[in-house]
Amino acid sequence: MRIAVLSDIHGNVPALDAVLEDIERHGVEAIVCLGDHVSGPIDPAGAAERVMALDATAIRGNHDRWVVDPSLRHEPWSVDEYARAQLSAHQMGWLASLPATAKLGDAVFLCHGTPSSDEKPWLDNFFDGRNTVLPSEAEVEREAVGLDQPVILCGHTHIARTLRLSDGRLLVNPGSVGMQMVRGSPDAHYAIVERRLGKWQTALISVPYDTEAAARLAKENGFADWGDAIRFGWVGPESLG
């Protein structure tokens, strides 16, 4: 079985379109989307439309919760508010209906951050300036207790990583489709996980797209500060509002 894994689109339709076009070349049998679909300054409604049209298993991320109910966030984030204003009632209903976690058959478990929290990072601690730190083996293992699927998927940190637990289970973060930070790679990122000869394996994929068009849309929508993050992938999250 071959599965395309998308996460953290953040309303970036040019990046999403490039990823979906690339996926067509790989002949996948399923697509999963790990949350934070719409919160961004480029085209939230377009991103929702595309994800809704996929025959995909989708879950919500922390920003999806905050778009649906801004009272859940301690401090308002302007791109959440922008996304909320752009979505139709039908799209908001879809976003509100998404589960926190999901399973794909008996083999794959989906979460946004960790199985217990869509705000907690799992495979990397979140950015501290330019730095990220891989948690200890014990910390990573602890979050997987009680899951018996051989493949566990998460997002949230925007950092692509794949690793294995001591029992051989595969953990994968595909990185972010729509918003790259700190690492200096502006390309759209996603992953393919595949069962081959009885074993699961990962391909972390980076797809170039028209970042200038995406940055221009962000500026036109009132979020010029997102431009350098989109164009170059070096900006940290503290500079985005």
From TrEMBL:
InterPro entries xref list: Ap4A_hydrolase (IPR050126), Calcineurin-like_PHP_lpxH (IPR024654), Metallo-depent_PP-like (IPR029052), Pesterase_MJ0912 (IPR011152)
GO cellular component terms given for this protein: cytoplasm
GO MF annotation list: phosphatase activity
Gene3D superfamilies to which the protein is assigned, alphabetical: 3.60.21.10
Calcineurin-like phosphoesterase domain mapped to chain residues: 1-194
UniProt record similarity statement: Belongs to the metallophosphoesterase superfamily. YfcE family.
Name this polypeptide is given: Metallophosphoesterase
Species assigned in the record: Devosia marina
